[in-house]
Structure formats: C-alpha cells, structure tokens
Amino acid sequence: MKYLYLSILALIILFSCETRQQGEGPQKNGKQSPNPPAEGFDVTGSDPKAIEIADKVMEAMGGRKNWDNERYFTWNFFGSRTLWWDKLNGDVRIQMHNPDSTIILVNIFNKTGRVFSQGAEYTQPDSVTKYVKRGEGIWINDAYWLFMPFKLKDTGVTITYVREDTTQNGILSDVLQLTFRDVGNTPQNKYHIWVDRSDNLVKQWAFYRENDMSEPNFITPWVGYEKYGSILLAGDRGQRKITNIEVPEYMNESQFRDF
Length: 259
What we know:
Structural class: alpha+beta
Helix content: 10-25%
Number of strands: 16
Radius of gyration: 18 Å
Number of helices: 4
Order of helices and strands: HEEHHEEEEEEHEEEEEEEE
C-alpha cells in the first residue's frame, strides 16, 4: 500500500487548484475551447495530439461544464475510509474506519480544520495541525485515484503522447504520459494512462516514482464506469475498489464543521 501515497506530495498544489481555472481558454476556430486548461498547465511542453485526446477524455466523462457544475462527492476508498467533498468551498470530511473512528475535517483551500477521535475533539494545536495536514494528504491521494481523468490539463501538468498499445485486458488504446513541473515536493513522479480508442475513456494507468524509470511501480485497471449525477466515474482498480460513490445534489454543511 505504500505506493498509494507516493503521488500525494507531487500533487498537493496540482489538485488544490481545482476551482482556479483560467477565465479564458485557448481559441478553437474563433471560439473558446470547451475544455480550457488550468492556469499553469504546460501548453508549450505538451503534445497537441495528447491535448486533443485529453479533451476527448473530458467530453467522454460528461464534459467540462458538467464537471465544473458538480459540487458534492462522497466515496469509500478501498474500505479504509469514507470521504465527503464540497468542491466549491474546498471542505472535506474524512471518516477513518479504524478502532478510534477518527474524523478529520479540513478545508483544502485555507488549510484549517478539526479532528475528533473516540468522540472527543483534539484541542492541542500541534496535534490538530498534524492531523489536518494528514487529512489534506489523504484527500489529495484518494481524490486523484477517483477523479484523475478530469485533471489532465491541471496546473503544472505536461501531457505527451507515448504510443499506441493495448491494456492488460487487450483494449486498443492511446497511451499518454503525465509529468509535473514546479508542483509539490516530488515532481519527479509520472503516470502513463491508456485511453480506449473506442470510447475515449481511461482504462488503465501506471505509476512511476521517478520520471526516468522505464518500468512502473504498479499498473492497475481503471474500469467499472457508471454515471453519477451528470458525469462518469469508475471505481474498479483491480484488486482494490473505490465504492459507495455518490454525486448528490445537496450536502448538509454542518457535517464539514462539527462531529
């Protein structure tokens, strides 16, 4: 499980820029792109072909407009914890499925929060700071494992076309490489993602701890797509599963404030 968290530091700044998209995107045929890049996306270093495929992925997942408009999300990460996320306000609630029933409330925009364990709130500033930072890292890791296809043109990302290939399940795909620049403490990470040519959905990914590595640390499928709200999400990662995925229209704000 240790590699599940290798992407956390590399993507902290990257994923925290969720709602900070450019007001104006590149023009296509005199019209604004339906999927403009986030401010700081490496347009120059990215391949036009890779950008075109990334835009197709966004459209296949439900489209940029629908992704921007969906606000609330909840999911269970590999059976170890449940998360609730208010994308607009940056509020996250994490319920750990441990003997202490630890709950971490964190706002990933202003880095503040509260911590509860065994029904009691932590009050020591050092302990609160430690757990809030941990909660931010958990959210970044767990969210990227679920929402990565929507993040292909995020701040600090460079996407390039690698090759045509088949997944381990034999799906003919275009393989894109994601590398990172000036984000987090481990920008040397990279990913390869396999985009199904028949439906433009990501069907597999590989994680490389160092961007000069020729062999990945792991490869997992990315399957089990279903429609949630107005977008598609997939929770099947082979031996591990993201379950209880919901995209509700409403969440009670008190759950991000209190035990």
